[in-house]
Fold each of these.
Amino acid sequence: MSAESDVNDHGEDAGAPRNFIRTMIDEDLEAGKYQGVVTRFPPEPNGYLHIGHAKSICLNFGLARDYDGRCHLRFDDTNPVKEDVEYVDSIQADVKWLGFDWGEHLFFASDYFERMYSWAESLIEKGLAYVDSQPAEVISAQRGELGKPGIESPHRARSVEENLDLFRRMRAGEFPEGSHVLRARADMTSPNMLMRDPLLYRIKHADHHRTGDAWCIYPMYDYAHCLEDAIEEITHSLCTLEFDNNRELYDWVLDAVGFARPRTEQTEFARLKLEYTVMSKRKLLRLVEEGHVSGWDDPRMPTIAGLRRRGYTPASIQSFCEMIGVAKSNSMVDIGKLEYSIRDDLNARSPRRFCVTEPLKVTVRNLPAGEVVDLDIEEWPSEIGKEGSRSVPFTRELYIERGDFALEPPKGWRRLTPGGEVRLRGAFFLRCEDVVLGEDGEVAELTCTYDVDTLGGKAPDGRKPDGTIHWVSAERGVPCELRLYDRLFTEAEPESDPERDFIEALNDESLVVRRGVIEPSVLGSEPGDRFQFERLGYFMVDLVDSAAGSLVFNRVVTLKDGWAKQVARASGEAPKKEKAPTRVKSERTKRRPERRSREDERVNARQESPELAARYARYKDELGVSEENADILSVDDEVAAFFEGAVAVHADAQSVANWVVNDLLRELKDRELSELAITPAGLGGLVGLLDAGE
Ligand code: ATP
Ligand code: MG
């Protein structure tokens, strides 16, 4: 299987992304504060890891890798109630699959319970902690509110002896849950509410998945986490922004227990929020438990297990995490970036195949029954630079995509029509001679002829077909199940309305199952094998449900962002798909890439204009811009001029291209480039600074 080859080679990190955390670490090392870098990834084993965790994993393990330090995998298992070994196992498998290794540094917070307990006794002895025996509601009411100091608990003045006695009896199991808690004697007037005598321990008569019934008191996150970091001599403890206010308490506990500086320090970064999905474990658990998805590894889930089952590669997730970077302010990330990462990775690792998802039968009248023309068709486009081909049988009975034929074609239709002629990819020209209608009036099948002189897709007389479509032999093709996955929610921010249950925003069409037919060369493929089904998308043989006699393919991602189109259609706008392909000539055009023009339109445009083709080739071959970016940047004069203006200032064309395509053009949506506040030279300068780590 291909799992191993999916893992990135960590050896080369020449392009390690700059961010404020790396700058801080450089300064710390420069100042001699720490001898090396020790980070940790501290999941609570109460759910499966998701793409947000992947951001934290790539950050923490990536720093350890790049600074020759180490990164611990530590289970923050201080709450026995929701935790489970199933999660402990899945988390380890997921981190490994992502390509990271903690070596010997696997830890469990529960292993430190005894030490944490004795430090708690020492806090009592120092007068820095006390047992409070009031009900939780009273404690919380006494905490006061912002701008208003809290009220001290009547138990705050308990003697050390009384506190020790009560705390020991809490541990011994003498009290019911909720009857006592251990609190820090911190500051009831602090403007930081978390500092108003926070809880350190609570009673929970629950079995723990590792310590069993050894404990019936459990430490709170704010007490435990900093001690775990200190025990393991973590240098940089990275967490998400919500823990901003907890930092004061983190330091308070370490001071109180007596850890001297330099010691572990907490730094916050923005958590990943991704469009069209939810990330909270509680909500993901609801999706699983209420049966909206088939499990934690449902290919629509944002979990690592789901992404793996869908067909994502570790390399694509890593490059996504690099692309989004690490910043200090929260923002919603365009899901297009995740999809871009996987497309970019799969493009070079997925051989091309033909598959028909909604078969329409075609009889090739002038090819005798039983005759098979074995066509040798390249499985890589030339830009990939890989050799290889497969044999594809061309027979009298074929299938084409139902959607590639129109009885009454709309204007600009570039596929098959009655009397029309298309190129069958890798084969011949095909002309539609006759349409057979079924009883329901729908097209039942087509009778066609092929032109034997057009083998390879070129006509000796130079005539042009109406377009190029894919096809499969009906006689030799293999039936298969196709699982066409789409976004789990119909809205970019399913949680945006607090009044509404996010479940209501689920996309009914996030999974469409089709019976398709695929070319016979896929027989013998293994679970985990990935292909590009031409014109359809990237697919992977399902890891669980596929078997030799009944292949199941998951659609990992479409070839282009089809979502924008669907949204337009739903809102009553003319579907862009059906629009006549505008000719892009060298005069100024209003069309813009990605959202506005489709790849095949751009290909057509280049076929019509040698000028555009030359520009495309120059971006790709001379400037080293990726095929996908060159395609987008070269086709529109305005965009091309902007790009070239920026490159004139900052010569790293690949970097500029990424910025223009991934940020500028996405940001632009329907506005014009000229409406932007930034000039080409300004962008070039900016990218230059960013590349230099400023
Ligand atoms: P939840 O609140 O849904 O339970 P969590 O953040 O508490 O999730 P943990 O298991 O505690 O989940 O997370 C482990 C680590 O992963 C933490 O350091 C946390 O900061 C980080 N993490 C969790 N979610 C994200 C996210 N969306 N983006 C970046 N880091 C995240
Ligand atoms: Mg947590």
Amino acid sequence: MAVRHLMSPLDFSVEETEKLLDLANDIEANREKYSHVCDGKRIATLFYEPSTRTRLSFEAAMMNLGGKVLGFHSEDSSSAAKGESVADTIRIVSCYADIAAMRHPKEGAPLVASLKSSIPVINAGDGGHQHPTQTLTDMLTIRSLKGRLGNLRIGLCGDLKFGRTVHSLIASLSRYEGISFVLISPEELRIPSYVRNSLSAQGIPFTEVVKLDEETMSGLDVLYMTRVQKERFFNEADYIRMKDFYILDRDKLALAPEDMSVLHPLPRVNEISVEVDDDPRACYFRQAQYGVYARMALILTLMGIEV
Ligand code: NCD
């Protein structure tokens, strides 16, 4: 059987995505049933860029399934520092592990690795491009909170230019009926034109606005906040100018719909004030928990393990 990788959220059809989310919900409800299904299996986490949630949730996911973990957490601590290519690294890792998750600052690096890999490779974030496993997490969270993935009005706020989670989430939700987007960003951090053009070509309703105010938030089912991606700026002064452009605090949230869920892939910097954390609409910590179930379901799906 051909090895299956995950590079983009669109690598899974809508039906496959729904099946994976169903599996994640079953895992959430029946943890014990899955606790030994990966006994003897290993995941390699190959992280060339910092991470807390993505790497640790992949590792927790494999451990929850009974498997083991190996890997590195920075470029400096791997042979990349000596000049080894991702293509060579994955050939070697294929001898040591059954599946790999790779994060890399360069767009397309996990794809290059997958072409040389004899084990499934998961894109755990490639530069400012895609982050499909965060999308599975986000979809699982939204479906669990709202009971559906169609007929939703989704606001995405912050760094829409470099925020890879936003690009992947828009691509994935665009496949559902009745979706509309409100894209909230400073002029300099607008959504890339390839994403905008794709929305237009598909006839998906969207608006682009700068202000996060009552009018912008009215009618939103979900407000997806994002951090300004400091590491992708060429110039520190621009980052400093942009970094506190949006701050969702208690006063601002008081203007939002009662049933609007606030999501954030995390880490947050200043864009959501901690005073919002206790509001029932703040769902970002639950979202991080869903990330473990989504990744458990993904590992089982790519490894072809049926329970
Ligand atoms: C995101 C990422 O790495 O793109 N983090 C994550 O994986 N949860 C978002 C971010 O870093 O801002």
